[in-house]
Amino acid sequence: MRKHGTMIITCKRRPLIIRGEESYEVRAAGRLLSDNVRDPLTDGARILLAEGVDPAEPLVLRQRAPRWTA
User: Fold this and answer.
1) pTM value surpassing 0.85
2) CA 16, CA 57: separation in Å to the nearest integer?
């Protein structure tokens, strides 16, 4: 298992809603994990586990906010 310290997953809601379900883009450490998930935390965690990340590592979810210039 790979150790990373706290893994931060960022998600961004995709503009397209299909059949009433929202879709998200998910990234970890700036790397795209998936561009079409329904539950960013658990789906992102499953992807990281499949890549060999230690399941004992803490996981944090943050929403990527749009950048505004004023």
Assistant:
1) no
2) 32
**Nearest-angstrom CA–CA distance, 3 and 54:** 6
Which residue's structure tokens are 């960022």? 10
Query: pLDDT digit of tens for each residue in the chain (70 aa)?
Result: 666 677 888 888 877 666 677 888 999 988 999 988 989 999 999 999 999 988 888 888 888 765 544 4
What's the CA gap between 37 and 61, in Å, rounded?
Answer: 14
Q: How far apart are CA 63 and CA 39, in angstroms?
A: 12
Domain that holds residue 37: 7-63
User: Considering its fold, how many domains does the chain have in total?
Assistant: 1
User: Is-contact 60 8, C-beta < 8 A?
Assistant: yes
What end-to-end distance do the CA atoms of the chain give, in Å?
45
